[in-house]
Design a protein that fits this description.
299 residues; alpha/beta; Rossmann fold; 7-stranded mixed β-sheet; 11 helices; disordered C terminus
C-alpha cells in the first residue's frame, strides 16, 4: 500500500482565490454545507478519508470539504486517498501533484486490480461493476488503516436520481443511495456530501477552476454505462416540460410514505409504528384528573 504523506502547515499553500471566490464555488459550498447539516455528515473529531480518482466530482468534493473545514465551528481532518487500479497510462503523478500543490495529506494506493479484472470479468459484463467493487474494498481498508471513521465519496445529485430510476426500471426495486450509511465492514461510515449538487454545476466549476482531470484509463474510460446514458437522456427530455423534475425526484427520496407502497414488510412496520404512536398520543391527550381545567381533544 502506498505511503501516507502528511504535508506540514509550513508547506501548505492556501487554495487559489481565483476559483475560491467564484460565485459557482460559493454555490457548491453552500449545497455541501446544507447536506452536512441536513444529514449530520460531519461531527467533531471526525477523521475523513476522501476518495479522489482524478475526476471532476472527487476533485470538487475535496476542495469544497477543505474550504468548509477551514470555516467550520467543529474540528475534523481530511485525508485524500487515491486508488490506482493498475490501468496502463493512469496519471497518478498528476493527482499527486494536485495534492501537493494544495497541501493535502494523502495516500496513494497502487493495486493489481486490472489483472484481477482481466482474469475474472465475464465476457460482455461491465468493467465498472467489478472495478468499483474492488476499489470500494480497497478504500475501506485504506480508511481503516489510516484511523479514519468516515469515507467521503463524490456521488452528486444526478447519480442519486439516475440510480433511483435504474433500480425502478431494470431491477424492480425502490432504492437509490444514502447520504450517510455504515459500510458493510461495520467500521467506516460512508458519506456523500455532494448529494445536493447538480452535475452540470460541477462540470462548469471544473472548467472554470481548470482542474487537472485525468481518465482512469480503463478500456471503457469516457463511455458511460448505456442504461445510465438512457436515464440521462430521459431526464433531459423531461426537464423541457418539467424544469424542476430532478429536484422533485431527489426530494422524493426523503419523503417516503410506506403505507402507500406494496412492500408488505413496510406495511407491517408502518402499522406497528402508527399504533404505538397513536397509543402514545392518546395517553398524552387524556385530561389530568387532578387538574381543575382540561380541554376537549376536539378543541
Amino acid at each position: 500500500m502506498g505511503g501516507f504523506k502528511i504535508v506540514s502547515d509550513v508547506e501548505k499553500s492556501p487554495p487559489s482565490a481565483e476559483w475560491k471566490d467564484l460565485p459557482l464555488f460559493r454555490k457548491l459550498r453552500h449545497g455541501v454545507g446544507k447536506a452536512i447539516g441536513d444529514f449530520g455528515l460531519i461531527e467533531e473529531g471526525d477523521r475523513i478519508a476522501v476518495a479522489v480518482s482524478g475526476g471532476k466530482d472527487s476533485y470538487t468534493l475535496l476542495l469544497v470539504l477543505e474550504e468548509l473545514r477551514r470555516r467550520a465551528p467543529v474540528s475534523f481532518e481530511l485525508i485524500a486517498v487515491n486508488i490506482d487500479s493498475g490501468y496502463p497510462g493512469y496519471r497518478t503523478d498528476v493527482i499527486e501533484g494536485f495534492f501537493r500543490k494544495h497541501g493535502f495529506s494523502y495516500r496513494m494506493v497502487p493495486t493489481g486490480h486490472y489483472a484481477i479484472i482481466q482474469e475474472k470479468r465475464r465476457p460482455g459484463s461491465s468493467y465498472c461493476a467489478i472495478c468499483s467493487r474492488l476499489k470500494r474494498g480497497e478504500l475501506y481498508e485504506a480508511a481503516r488503516t489510516m484511523g479514519c471513521n468516515k469515507l467521503a465519496l463524490g456521488h452528486h445529485q444526478d447519480d442519486f436520481i439516475e440510480t433511483l430510476l435504474l433500480n425502478q426500471f431494470f431491477v424492480g426495486s425502490l432504492k437509490s443511495m444514502s447520504a450517510s450509511m455504515l459500510a458493510d465492514n461495520g467500521i467506516i461510515t460512508v458519506i456523500r456530501p455532494l448529494v445536493y449538487l447538480a452535475e452540470e454545476d460541477i462540470i462548469a466549476f471544473s472548467r472554470q477552476a481548470d482542474l487537472p482531470v485525468v481518465c482512469c484509463c480503463c478500456p471503457v474510460c469516457g463511455t458511460a454505462d448505456m442504461q445510465r446514458k438512457r436515464m440521462k437522456r430521459l431526464l433531459k427530455e423531461l426537464q423541457v416540460d418539467i424544469p424542476h423534475v430532478k429536484n422533485s425526484l431527489l426530494k422524493a427520496l426523503s419523503n417516503v410514505h410506506p403505507r402507500h407502497l406494496l412492500d408488505s414488510s413496510l406495511r407491517r412496520d408502518s402499522t406497528v409504528t402508527e399504533k404505538t404512536s397513536a397509543l402514545s398520543l392518546n395517553s398524552n391527550l387524556l385530561p389530568d384528573p387532578d387538574s381543575t381545567v382540561s380541554q376537549q381533544i376536539s378543541d
